[in-house]
Amino acid sequence: MNIFDSLRQNIFKILVGILVVATLVVGYFCWQAYQYYKSPEYLADQVQEALKPGQIAKLAAIADFGPIFHRLSTAIATSYPFIESGPNQQERITRRVQAALLEKFRDTSKPGVDHETDREKLLLRPLVALPPDFVEQMQKSMVLQRVSEYMAVLTFTIRHPQLNNQAFQLAFTVTNTPDGWRITDFSNAAQVVASFRAAHLQRQEAKRQIFIRRNQAAADTMRNLLTLESCNASSGMISDGRTILTVVHVLARNKSPQRVNNVNLLVSLQTPDGKELITRNLNAAKATEPGADFDYRWTIDMDRSDPDARALLAAPSLVCKPRWYSMTLDNGRVLYDVEVLSVPEDIK
Fold it and tell me: Based on the structure, what is the number of domains in the chain?
């Protein structure tokens, strides 16, 4: 019997064997596919697809936005109580966050290159909550970690260029539900928002220091423009028997080549032992040419029933402590020296 006769006699057995092997292989791959579609890895791939331009609507099929936004709005209201303060604060925060995220996900343009290198100019810009490449960073940094048969964690690392490139890790709970694996919670929202707020406050303090330095520079410039020579003050009752008149006399000299058109002087009147009685901002729309003296008197009228007025009258003598508050120069430049206690919030 040759080989061909043997094949003809066993062809049925061979075909059956091939069919069995093919069935096993197909079954194995079908089982693998079934397992994949029922796994958190499949959900992670869906998230990556949803993060592509114009695909954000796909997230609605795999994420429970209700509890996610509730967790986030609660965290924002805690760390930023002044945002949308008042009735229904969390609801209004949620709408605001949703609008910002939707705008970011719908924007298909690539972030422009920022060529600004001046640190002060960068710091003085309003803080934008979401970095320009927020979605791109989500795509590149996504990591899935299984916790159990029924739970996993999806994390994204976002670096914010306006907050010293600080990294914030966003963690979302992924749960195996009867409808499949879904994103069910923003599990570390409170920690993320609290860390963001702390970094934001550091940025605010850095901005405040900029204003303080600018104020100091302005104060030094004003002192050099008009050098204060003397400040004297005296108080007395005038003839009506009700009005206490205080006269403040300031002498300064313009030692600069620039004409000064207008000044504001902050004057503290004190007792000889240093107790402050009153502080007044005094204005003079008086031009002072280069090399000329600034010689000006102000009068402050106060009723004798005013406790401050009685304190001025009772003082054995008055000590005058002046400092320039602002100046307007002939070239249009305005100088200010204003105490900076805080910097207004400017988050977008």
Answer: 2
